[in-house]
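User: Before I run my own analysis I want an independent prediction to cross-check against. Here's the chain; please return only the structure tokens and, at the end, one sentence I can use as a sanity check.
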Amino acid sequence: MESVGVYGFCGCKGKSKIKRDSRWEITAAETAPTSAYSSPARSLGDTGITPLSPSHILNDADPVSDEQTFLVVVAIDFGTTSSGYAYSFTKEPECIHVMRRWEGGDPGVSNQKTPTTILLTPDRKFHSFGYAARDFYHDLDPNEAKQWLYLEKFKMKLHTTGDLTTDTDLTAANGKKVKALEIFTHALQHFKEQALKELSDQAGSDFENSDVRWVITVPAIWKQPAKQFMREAAYQAGLASPENSEQLIIALEPEAASIYCRKLRLHQMIELSSKAVVNGYSASDTVGAGFTQAKEHVRRNRQSRTFLVENVIGEIWSELEEGDKYVVVDSGGGTVDLTVHQIRLPEGHLKELYKATGGPYGSLGVDYEFEKLLCKIFGDDFIEQFKIKRPAAWVDLMIAFESRKRAAAPDRTNPLNITLPFSFIDYYKKFRGHSVEHALRKSNVDFVKWSSQGMLRMSPDAMNALFKPTIDSIIEHLRDLFQKPEVSTVKFLFLVGGFAEAPLLQQAVQAAFGDKCRIIIPQDVGLTILKGAVLFGLDPAVIKVRRSPLTYGVGVLNRYVEGKHPPEKLLVKDGTRWCTDVFDKFISADQSVALGELVKRSYTPAKPSQLVIVIHIYSSEQDDVSFITDPGVRKCGTLRLDLTGTSGTAVPARREIQTLMQFGDTEIKATAVDVATSKSVKVGIDFLNY
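Assistant: Structure tokens:
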């Protein structure tokens, strides 16, 4: 059997040891004097830790066997543009209650959820969240507003930051920096307080946090650091703790939507692609009209805020056979997530067929296009200054645009008017020395006119053009997905998320894929993820098989083989020839992993008295990885084994620490045990601070 060594900090210095054994060899990874080549492992000066040969175990027992029972599941859909919570009592899993109606709101915009906006006082204390934050900020004197920290749409920072850490900053509307972790913690704390207050009011007595299982939704395309960041913020907000981590579940947004879509009755959905009448609408009805009528139906039935779900599979699955496939397109404010699932009957368990894909193609893209249009008309320099000098007025302008954006439709003929705040008109005149109307005439932007009522008048084609780049990106991404063999025989495409309400997106998806599969939109589409996240919290084992988005592994030492290994990887130590930087793969990108399937490695400390082992984890989007120095391979985290308190009075000469890693859940998890004493070893996987 080939001997290997893992790079990790072993806490011992000085003379390296080689321990001879049929299965174990330990050596120090020091720089070979014969080569000037510098590898990450050699520069670490770490002692090699030897794993046993890799193995996979399929754990037949239910991996989600929580000792703790909860009275209620509360799911928080933390969205880029809007957020909300819903809950269900574990004794009444068929009833999902959506949060109490929030104060405030915009004309023509459903306020079942609240904007993801947060306001801090000038001395950086939490003030308010959602409509309350936005309305208070709007009413502040312009000079006073510059001192307050107002943040919106900040969730995208977790997706776009490549080197996310607990120290990552966000920028408030006034240009001041604030720690992202602090903002996310405030937001989650606010939801926690609101939810517990509502539960206490309903129960007639104080509801304890320990009675609640919390679920937080994140995009499926988020990498591990962003998921860990949300968990860290939730711990700081007091939703759960590292000691009681099972109280919090991270749910993937398209998975949550998929779980809910399984339960749909015919009257709870609109089908865009079928000639058959569904929910009273036929395909000959315009997309927008059918959807508007459906939304009215939902509004009339909203007073109770309680939704009943089937405790069996919904009617839509009556047409599905074992092994049928469907795609969930979760189009939100910041990202679009695509997930492919296969149904397993009769229980209705789900299997992921292709790793989650997507990108930053949410409705925010339309806002960016509008901002680019304003820059074209009024100049980049003015818009940049206006945002800094009049931050509250800029927020007002984007609110006005949001409400008109929702009125965009393929068949619209009359123009859309967007009110410009008085301070925009006034500040522009001071800044440029001429009027807004003059700027519009001079800009040669024909499709935007000035109205004497103080409004920008956009033609429907102009508004539709703002949607085009974002919608084109979504359609192109879907086309790529449909090329994959796993997706070729899809029966349904579910369009969910807030952006799915846009008739322009509905029409584009219908035109591109209506002949390939049936396109379904759940009613009250903006709440699909929230309701599905509650169902996931009630039964986290419903997704039985997932796909790994990346290849994960560690760097190891292997015996050097002449002709097989590159000469620059040769390390000679005490007469033994080693190949450094070998990538020991835990799991491959797009590999199918069952829930409860574990990757096992065993490590032994370099000396019995050692208390901590830290092993570096590497990842790649490629499957074919040989060395940790290959292009595209990056260090992404650490596996830390804390051996304090595991050894008895007699420390064995050789300790074996068996580590089990689970890749089939929404987060990568690990457990470890000291084989000699059978005591559990504290183990942590850190993707944020490594």
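Sanity check: The mean pLDDT is 81.
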